[in-house]
Amino acid sequence: MINRINPIALTRLESIQKNSGESKQAAVSFESVLGNALKQVNDLQQQSEAMNAKLASGQLEYLHQSTVMSEKATLALQMTIQVRNKILEAYQEIMRTQF
């Protein structure tokens, strides 16, 4: 028995080949989005350290400012770690997939 080629599969293959140029642009934008997100987390960490230094030196008038900034930085770091863990899990799952 001879297997026929499904015309829908060929259409999908052609559309994937046409869109391959767009995926390079998407990869660059993903890289920039990820870089910006990590920069924001780093900025929050630095702001938190600066607030703690001001608090220790007596330059900060209200304690809650330091506490709020510290919590923001902690939550941002925890979320970044969780996103990283999910990305690694997805990558490992893809690597386990047999083609």
- From the helix content, strand content and strand pairing, which structural class follows? mainly alpha
Number of helical regions: 3
Uncertain stretches? none
Radius of gyration: 24 Å
- Helix percent band: over 70%
Task: Give me the count of strands.
Answer: 0
> Roughly what is the average pLDDT, rounded to an integer?
81
Q: What would the principal axes of the Cα set say about the shape?
A: elongated
Biggest sheet overview:
none
* H/E series: HHH
Strand content: under 5%
Distance between the termini: 24 Å
Question: How many domains comprise the coordinates?
Answer: 1
Provide an overview of this structure.
The protein has 99 residues and is mostly helical. The protein has one domain (27-96). It has 3 helices and no strands. Helix 2 (20-57) packs antiparallel against helix 3. The model has no long low-confidence stretch (mean pLDDT 81).
